[in-house]
């Protein structure tokens, strides 16, 4: 008894240490439980992959060959370790022939795929949204790109920091990182694929400036105060898991200096179309299957699960509305243009969703809305427009291009603060604000996905 009393006395006299110890213990136990459960789960996935690998194959059949493009820098350089721990073992157990190409610098995923000659059955991106967008850009910049993209499946192993496409492809596993990685790897192994939309971003030529080559994205474009705040969240790392919430509080205070609170753009857009004679030329998804080309990827070309081939001849269809061009001047602090790939609604007609919030946002509303988004709720932006094509001329950016220096640019922004952020995100990659033409290319790439979770 005396011993117990003594223990209590010690605890009371050192209450700070006791509280700390208890918290550490709770976290420790929680961590051990999670890592134990993860190990059990990985064992089940390995078992499933091994069964597939051990299934007998016809004698004349070569093992499936996949090319993995791994971005080791993704997710603060943890990508390679995660790939090796949770993805690679499953791929090898399933008997795939895997060629892992590690990128050395930014932009290399794109150039690697642009120049890829190796015969392969699938390209698998191990990285975040940025690497995936680079890969799609590389693929579609190839001469044979659009033809290949419709047939050769792409995979994603979500080892990045932001994996929004993967989280939509594997929504049932989105909350558990290890499960998400394992499910995505199993999808590559099991080969079920579905078509995704692509958005083509082409910089609009301005006096004397060519537009350059297009960039392609699968998720979309984000611009404004919420994007800027989100891009800064890691500055508040010491808040741990609450850094996102903290970012909104601080951005709201200091934001006048560094955050895009308000910019205007002139917008032109055309409404969505289900396919007609007017958009036929541009809409590759409406075209019948091209003759088999003898290109690098088709060396093993017998496998083409789920090719997207239309059954209707759209050249005879008339849709008067398709040619319509509408104009709108937008002023907002929060702008987004997304594809259906990352929208929760199921849309029959292919469409881009443009949405934007009010012109001015109060500190309270900003933090409230930011916190809502941190809680995983959908952004609330009262204005919504559906389109198949959008041209945006940011009022600020046009002036920015006229005057080469950044300082003279800012003099031209009537309501804008100094040092305004001039960046937007496309698939979570940063780009300078410029006049841009965004075009929806429906069902252009095929991606591995899982129709249901493989291991519960
Ligand atoms: C009120 C609402 C305002 C909304 C305004 C949003 C304006 C967004 C402008 C986004 C511009 C994005 C341009 C991305 C494309 C881009 O910058 O491509 C660069 C390529 O060519 C160069 O590629 P490369 O030749 O490979 O180096
Ligand atoms: N070897 C590398 N070193 C540094 N950056 C790289 C390398 N390979 C790719 N990148 C770049 O890393 C950036 C982030 O990649 P991303 O896939 O979006 O991961 P994350 O979600 O972790 O940010 C991309 O812009 C990509 O071009």
TrEMBL record:
<dbReference type="InterPro" id="IPR001206">
    <property type="entry name" value="Diacylglycerol_kinase_cat_dom"/>
</dbReference>
<dbReference type="GO" id="GO:0005743">
    <property type="term" value="C:mitochondrial inner membrane"/>
</dbReference>
<keyword id="KW-0496">Mitochondrion</keyword>
<feature type="domain" description="DAGKc">
    <location>
        <begin position="61"/>
        <end position="205"/>
    </location>
</feature>
<dbReference type="GO" id="GO:0047620">
    <property type="term" value="F:acylglycerol kinase activity"/>
</dbReference>
<keyword id="KW-0547">Nucleotide-binding</keyword>
<keyword id="KW-0067">ATP-binding</keyword>
<dbReference type="GO" id="GO:0001729">
    <property type="term" value="F:ceramide kinase activity"/>
</dbReference>
<keyword id="KW-0472">Membrane</keyword>
<dbReference type="GO" id="GO:0046486">
    <property type="term" value="P:glycerolipid metabolic process"/>
</dbReference>
<dbReference type="Pfam" id="PF19712">
    <property type="entry name" value="AGK_C"/>
</dbReference>
<dbReference type="GO" id="GO:0005524">
    <property type="term" value="F:ATP binding"/>
</dbReference>
<dbReference type="InterPro" id="IPR045579">
    <property type="entry name" value="AGK_C"/>
</dbReference>
<keyword id="KW-0808">Transferase</keyword>
<dbReference type="GO" id="GO:0046513">
    <property type="term" value="P:ceramide biosynthetic process"/>
</dbReference>
<comment type="similarity">
    <text>Belongs to the AGK family.</text>
</comment>
<keyword id="KW-0418">Kinase</keyword>
<dbReference type="InterPro" id="IPR050187">
    <property type="entry name" value="Lipid_Phosphate_FormReg"/>
</dbReference>
<comment type="pathway">
    <text>Lipid metabolism; glycerolipid metabolism.</text>
</comment>
<dbReference type="GO" id="GO:0005758">
    <property type="term" value="C:mitochondrial intermembrane space"/>
</dbReference>
<dbReference type="GO" id="GO:0046512">
    <property type="term" value="P:sphingosine biosynthetic process"/>
</dbReference>
<keyword id="KW-0443">Lipid metabolism</keyword>
<protein>
    <recommendedName>
        <fullName>Acylglycerol kinase, mitochondrial</fullName>
        <ecNumber>2.7.1.107</ecNumber>
        <ecNumber>2.7.1.138</ecNumber>
        <ecNumber>2.7.1.94</ecNumber>
    </recommendedName>
</protein>
<dbReference type="GO" id="GO:0004143">
    <property type="term" value="F:ATP-dependent diacylglycerol kinase activity"/>
</dbReference>
<dbReference type="GO" id="GO:0015031">
    <property type="term" value="P:protein transport"/>
</dbReference>
<dbReference type="InterPro" id="IPR016064">
    <property type="entry name" value="NAD/diacylglycerol_kinase_sf"/>
</dbReference>
<dbReference type="Pfam" id="PF00781">
    <property type="entry name" value="DAGK_cat"/>
</dbReference>
<dbReference type="InterPro" id="IPR017438">
    <property type="entry name" value="ATP-NAD_kinase_N"/>
</dbReference>
<keyword id="KW-0999">Mitochondrion inner membrane</keyword>
């Amino acid at each position: 008894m005396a011993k117990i009393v003594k223990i209590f006395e010690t605890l009371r006299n050192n209450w700070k240490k006791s509280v700390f110890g208890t918290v550490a213990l709770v976290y420790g136990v929680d961590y051990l439980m999670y890592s134990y459960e993860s190990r059990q789960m990985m064992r089940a996935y390995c078992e499933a992959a091994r069964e597939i690998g051990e299934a007998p194959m016809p004698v004349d059949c070569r093992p499936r060959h996949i090319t993995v493009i791994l971005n080791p820098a993704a997710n603060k350089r943890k990508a390679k370790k995660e790939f090796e721990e949770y993805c690679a073992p499953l791929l090898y157990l399933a008997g795939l022939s895997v060629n892992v190409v590690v990128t050395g610098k930014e932009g290399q995923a794109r150039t690697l795929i642009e120049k890829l000659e190796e015969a392969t059955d699938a390209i698998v991106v191990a990285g975040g949204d940025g690497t995936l967008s680079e890969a799609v850009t590389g693929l579609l910049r190839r001469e044979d790109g659009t033809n290949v993209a419709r047939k050769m499946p792409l995979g994603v192993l979500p080892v990045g920091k932001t994996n929004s496409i993967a989280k939509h492809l594997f929504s049932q596993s989105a909350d558990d990182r290890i499960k998400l990685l394992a499910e995505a790897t199993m999808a590559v192994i099991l080969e079920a694929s579905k078509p995704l939309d692509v958005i083509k971003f082409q910089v609009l030529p301005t006096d004397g400036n060519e537009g350059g080559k297009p960039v392609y994205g699968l998720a979309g474009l984000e611009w404004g105060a919420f994007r800027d705040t989100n891009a800064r969240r890691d500055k508040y790392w010491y808040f741990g898991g609450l850094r996102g919430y903290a970012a909104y509080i601080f951005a709201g205070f200091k934001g006048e200096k560094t955050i895009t609170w308000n910019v205007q753009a002139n917008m032109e857009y055309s409404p969505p179309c289900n396919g007609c004679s007017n958009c036929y030329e541009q809409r590759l998804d409406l075209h019948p299957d091209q003759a088999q080309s003898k290109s690098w990827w088709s060396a093993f070309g017998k496998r083409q699960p789920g090719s997207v081939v239309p059954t209707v001849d759209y050249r005879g269809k008339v849709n008067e509305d398709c040619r319509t061009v509408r104009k709108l001047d937008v002023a907002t602090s929060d702008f987004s243009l997304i594809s259906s790939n990352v929208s929760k609604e199921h849309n029959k007609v292919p469409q881009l969703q443009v949405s934007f919030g009010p012109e001015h946002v109060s500190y309270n509303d900003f933090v409230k809305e930011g916190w809502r988004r941190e809680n995983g709720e959908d952004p609330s932006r009262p204005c919504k427009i559906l389109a198949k094509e959008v041209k945006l001329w940011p009022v600020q950016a046009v002036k920015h291009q006229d005057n080469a220096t950044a300082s003279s640019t800012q003099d031209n922004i009537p309501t804008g603060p100094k040092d305004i952020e001039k960046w937007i995100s496309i698939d979570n990659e940063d780009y300078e604000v410029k006049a841009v033409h965004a075009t929806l290319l429906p069902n252009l790439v095929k991606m591995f996905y899982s129709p249901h979770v493989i291991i519960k």
